[in-house]
Amino acid sequence: MSQPTLDIVILAAGKGTRMNSDLPKVLHPLAGKPLVSHVIASAHEMGADRICVVYGFGGDAVPKTLADEKLTFVLQAEQLGTGHAVQQALPHLEKDGVTLVLYGDVPLTRVDTLKPLIAAAQSGNLGLLTVLLQDPTGYGRIVRAHGRVVRIVEHKDATEAERDIREVNTGILAAPTGKLIDWLGRLKNHNVQGEYYLTDIIAMAVADGIEVLASHPGEDWEVLGVNSKTQLAGLERTYQHNAARELLDSGVTLIDPARIDVRGELLCGRDVSIDVGCIFEGRVEIGDNVNIGPYCVLKDVRVSSGVKIDAFSHLVGTEIGDDSRIGPFSRTRPGTRLERDVHVGNFVEVKNSVVKAGAKMNHLSYIGDADVGAKSNIGAGTITCNYDGANKHKTVIGENAFIGSNTALVAPVSVGDSATIGAGSVVVKDAPAGELTVSRAKQLTVPGWKRPVKKKREE
Ligand code: UD1
Ligand code: CA
After folding, report:
1. Residues whose beta carbon lies within 6 Å of some atom of ligand 1
2. Distance, CA of 259 to CA of 241 (rounded, Å)
3. How far is the CA of 168 from the centre of ligand 2 (A)?
4. In percent, how much of the chain has pLDDT > 90?
5. Pocket mutation for ligand 1, best pick of 10, 38, 82 (most atoms within 8 Å of C-beta)
6. CA 165 – CA 133 distance, rounded (Å)
7. pLDDT tens by residue, 271-284
């Protein structure tokens, strides 16, 4: 028999008053992407057939931000409680399947923690994720009788005795969808907050003879939600601590695991060393024997083996070939492809250019929309003038060319193989292969010339 349909409902309608922000809470970034996107990623990993995001606060900011993901958006115009929120998604759910409820502001729950809940629902029971807390204040308490979960009572509705219970509801649960539809249809808002509580379905399940199977997360941070910037910062640290730990376990040297930020995917080969203060964004792939100096930012970069990147380099949308040397203080922008053994030095910016093997540009240059031939040397201060104020133009430099310092290459223009350009030239026409081209004014000496002297003030 095939697995029943798995629908996942993500509650994301809340405002998050304590964030003190106009951005809906679930869109605040954790490790570089919206909180709710972490939850959506877990939902995909679980193999959800359908993912319903219940949104509300902030107009269509949530659906707009998440536009490129395969999701069903459901508007909860008024936030009348967690039960009411799940109700909004019911028309989209497959009633013969099972439904898992997650929260857009609880980003770090691991898939292995959610699996037992799904299994419980698939076997016709209700799976509930609970946790034991030192201080359960504010949470819904898990009321048990003879060891079995019988209901949940919200903190505000609880008696003194119930408030002593330390097992609390994380909010995350899974149930057979047909049952869920029935229970939610019968919810009342007769409680202190006048809300439709999702938690009231627990007692209904028990009354229907359905067993409530409580399971627990491996780590407490898996069920932590974000209600304030302090909690967001705390979960960011947890995330980064975990990311650093994974890198260390895989053999990467981190000079200080507390001082690295991974905001995306970082894949490292063997014997990679990363100094402090580096930030990795998007997808970064690093080969073997790569050394990254302090305070570098790499976003969507592929680094081959044996590369050394020195301090304070900012690299985006770039491929770097074997054994290349980058930095300190280098900047490469999208569309940059450096082949093997290329040197890009301090205060050099490269954009949308292919630099062939062995070429060097060590100081103070801008190379944009260019092809640089193998083994060419780009002197200090060389600039490709790629922009005429309206359009971008290309510069082509052949193999083994030597561009003198402080040359302006006014594109479109080409420099032939083994050509030499004299320092300080402004090159507006193609420079032929093998020849010296100089375009600066000839040096001249004026014999007997005297410096002006300061005029005496008249009396
Ligand atoms: C809820 C649980 C409580 C549990 C706690 C864990 C209920 C009634 N109570 O309480 O047992 O211990 O979570 O954190 O479920 N939301 C909507 N629409 C609504 C109401 C809420 O989308 O109408 C979303 C919120 O944005 C939030 C989540 O659901 O992400 C939880 O809502 P919240 O009001 O924070 O529930 P709690 O009172 O904390
Ligand atoms: Ca809450």
Report:
1. 11, 13-14, 54, 76, 79-82, 84-85, 103-105, 139-140, 152, 154, 168-171, 197-199, 225
2. 9
3. 12
4. 95
5. 82
6. 9
7. 999 999 999 999 99
**Helix %, strand %, coil % of the chain (to 5):** 20, 35, 45
- Rounded CA gap, 238 and 262, in Å? 12
The bound ligand whose nearest atom lies closest to the alpha carbon of 224 is 1
- Residue 38: active-site member: no
pLDDT at 69: 77
| Largest distance between two CA atoms of the chain | 114
CATH class belonging to 229-437:
mainly beta
pLDDT band at 200 (very low <50, low <70, confident <90, very high): very high
CA 424 – CA 283 distance, rounded (Å): 40
* 315/280 Cα distance (integer angstroms): 10
Per-residue confidence (pLDDT) for residue 459, from 0 to 100: 66
Q: Would you place residue 1 in the very low, low, confident or very high pLDDT band (cuts 50, 70, 90)? A: low
Domain ranges for the chain:
6-223, 229-437
Residue 339 has pLDDT above 60, yes or no: yes
The dihedral over CA atoms of 382, 384, 388, 389, expressed in degrees to the nearest 10, equals -80
Rounded to whole angstroms, the Cα distance separating 17 from 232 reads: 14
* 225 CA from centroid of ligand 2 (Å): 7
Starting from the CA of residue 139, give the closest ligand: 1
3-state class of 377 per DSSP? strand
Nearest CA to ligand 1 atom 21: 82
Judged against a pLDDT cut of 70, whether residue 438 lies above it is answered with yes
Q: What is the pLDDT of residues 54-89, one digit of tens each?
A: 999 888 999 999 987 789 999 999 999 999 999 999
Ligand at minimal distance from the CA of 79 is 1
Of 92, 155, 363, 393, which is the active-site residue? 363
Beta bridge partners of 7: 50, 99
Q: What DSSP element (H or E) covers 111?
A: helix 111-122
Mean pLDDT of 238-260: 98
Contacts of 118 (CB under 8 A, 6+ apart): 6, 46, 98, 100, 127, 174
For ligand 1, the distance from its centroid to the CA atom of residue 12, given in whole angstroms, is 10
Q: How far is the CA of 296 from the centre of ligand 2 (A)?
A: 37
Exposed/middle/buried for residue 435 (C-beta within 10 Å: 0-12, 13-18, 19+): exposed
CATH number of 6-223: 3.90.550.10
